[in-house]
Structure formats: C-alpha cells, structure tokens
C-alpha cells in the first residue's frame, strides 16, 4: 500500500506543478480598427502563448466593388507581448485573392498574393492557384501596436464573386 500512496502523492504534486507552470489567463490583446472602433469577431488572446484551449482574436471583412481595395489598417494592441516575441496570424481567403501585410512600426511582413483566380491581376497575367489558408508572422518591435492591412482586386473577377477573408491569432 505504501508504494501506491507514494505514487499517488507524486502524481498529485506533479499535476499541481504543471498547473502552476501554465500561462496566466486574461492578458488580452485588443484589436481596433484605424478609426478607434473595435474590430469584428473580437474575442481575446492569451499572452501570445497557446495553452490547451486558446480563445481567438480576429478580423474579417468583405468587398463587392470592382476596383483595387485596401482594408484597414487594423490596429492590434500587443502590449502583453515582450519585445522580440512573434505574433502569428492565421489566414483564410474566400472567393478573390488577397495580400496581407503586418507592420510593427519598423518592419513589415507580407503574405504575398494568396487564393485562387483564373483571371489576371497583380498576382500575374494567368491567374493564381495557391492555398486559401496560410499564415503570416512578425516580431514585436518597440511599438505596442502592430497594424494589419489587406489588399484585393475584383476588377477582372466574375461579377458574382465578392471578396471576403478572415485572419486570426
């Protein structure tokens, strides 16, 4: 019996130690758009660390025009991240190709054009055929704000297609 109780005690103390090493919940990143309003689909983010279950923060938008269009900038408050930590953005592109750019105030990171199109555009004269999902990352600089902009062009797209996208972290 003593061997069983020692093993059980070791298990309990191991679980307590694990729970103490998990990241603290509640340190949120708060996105806003350039006009000071809150971005769409705001939930929260936890220190940029992925625990077992992590709430998501994201942005989405649509455009039905036929010209070149820039969404944003959307401001991401990253004050809870240490300088040098990386913000990773997950991307989903629907219907019309998009190009995502993150700017930390001193450097930019771009996804390049992503998506599928059989018509010409800034992605090339013969269309584009890349994954509709992807990622983009940038290192936090001295600023507590990282800006996201998203570009699209519907000019040669079939008339029934509207641009839409979703990005989250």
How would you describe the overall organization of this protein?
The chain contains one helix and eleven strands; from the N terminus they run αβββββββββββ. It is mainly beta. The strands form three sheets. A five-stranded antiparallel beta sheet has the order 1-3-10-5-6, with no helix packed on it. A four-stranded antiparallel beta sheet has the order 2-11-4-9, with no helix packed on it. Strand 5 and strand 6 form a beta hairpin. The longest helix is centred in the first third of the chain and has 20 residues. The protein is elongated and about 45 Å long. About 25% of the residues are buried.
Mean pLDDT, as a whole number? Answer: 75
Could you tell me how far the N terminus lies from the C terminus, measured between alpha carbons in angstroms?
49 Å
Per DSSP E runs of 2 or more residues, the count of β-strands stands at 11
Strand content: 35-45%
Q: What can be said about the biggest beta sheet?
A: 5 strands, antiparallel
Q: Secondary-structure element sequence?
A: HEEEEEEEEEEE
- Give start-end ranges of low-pLDDT stretches: 1-54
C-alpha Rg, in Å? 21 Å
Estimated structural class: mainly beta
Produce a short descriptive summary:
With 169 residues, this protein is mainly β. It has one helix and eleven strands, in the order αβββββββββββ.
Characteristic key phrases:
disordered N terminus, mainly beta, 169 residues, five-stranded antiparallel sheet, four-stranded antiparallel sheet
SSE layout and pairing:
Blueprint (H helix, E strand, L loop, with lengths): L1 H20 L9 E3 L24 E6 L4 E10 L8 E9 L3 E6 L4 E7 L1 E2 L10 E2 L3 E7 L5 E9 L9 E6 L1
Antiparallel strand pairs: 1-3, 2-11, 3-10, 4-9, 4-11, 5-6, 5-10, 7-8
């Amino acid at each position: 019996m003593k061997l069983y109780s020692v093993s059980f005690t070791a298990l309990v103390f191991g679980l307590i130690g694990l729970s103490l090493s998990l990241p603290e919940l509640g340190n949120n990143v708060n996105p806003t758009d350039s006009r000071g309003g809150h971005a769409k689909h705001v939930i929260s983010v936890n220190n940029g660390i992925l625990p077992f279950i992590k709430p998501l923060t994201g942005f989405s938008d649509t455009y039905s025009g036929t010209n070149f269009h820039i969404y944003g900038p959307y401001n991401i408050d990253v004050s809870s991240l240490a300088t040098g930590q990386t913000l990773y953005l997950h991307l989903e592109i629907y219907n019309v190709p998009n190009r995502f750019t993150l700017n930390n105030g001193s450097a930019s990171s771009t996804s390049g054009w992503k998506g599928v199109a059989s018509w010409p555009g800034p992605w090339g004269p013969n269309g584009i055929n890349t994954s509709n999902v992807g990622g983009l990352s940038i290192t936090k600089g001295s600023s507590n704000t990282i800006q996201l902009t998203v570009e699209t062009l519907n000019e040669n797209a079939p008339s029934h297609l509207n641009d839409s996208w979703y990005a989250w972290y």
